[in-house]
């Protein structure tokens, strides 16, 4: 089964709610994998219209989770998103 979602390399981050992030500059797509209450990797989402500069700001933020929840999540018109998978493959 083919998927339209690009395969994006992910990098683990130090955050209580976000497991890892990645960016595809060719498609301006941000990938975010979240954590569950146990700190385990869960859902993967892709956010569109996310520039390399936006990604650097997120990656280098003092708090990645805070930056995400203040600068990205509230702006679903600017950064439309899709849930790519519910949980990582085991």
Task: Describe this entry's structure for a reader.
InterPro entries: KTSC_dom. It comes from Cupriavidus nantongensis. Pfam families: KTSC. This is KTSC domain-containing protein. A 5-stranded antiparallel β-sheet has the order 1-2-3-4-5, with helices on one face. The chain has one domain. Helix content is 19%, strand content 31%. It has 2 helices and 5 strands; from the N terminus they run ββββααβ.
Task: Describe the structure concisely for a colleague.
The protein is of the alpha+beta class and 90 residues long. Helices cover 19% and strands 31% of the residues.
Class per helix and strand makeup: alpha+beta
Low-pLDDT ranges:
none
Rg (CA only): 12 Å
Domain tally:
1
- Which outline best applies? globular
Strand proportion, as a percent range, falls in 25-35%
Number of continuous helical runs = 2
Share of helix among residues?
10-25%
Distance between the termini: 18 Å
Strand order of the largest sheet: 1-2-3-4-5
């Amino acid at each position: 089964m083919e998927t339209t979602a690009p395969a994006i390399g992910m990098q683990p981050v130090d955050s209580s709610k976000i497991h890892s992030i990645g960016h595809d500059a060719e498609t301006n797509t941000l990938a975010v994998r979240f954590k569950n209450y146990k700190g385990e990797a869960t859902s993967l989402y892709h956010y569109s219209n996310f520039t390399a500069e936006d990604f650097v700001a997120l990656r280098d933020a003092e708090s990645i989770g805070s930056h995400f929840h203040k600068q990205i999540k509230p702006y679903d018109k600017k950064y439309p998103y899709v849930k790519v998978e519910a949980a990582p493959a085991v």
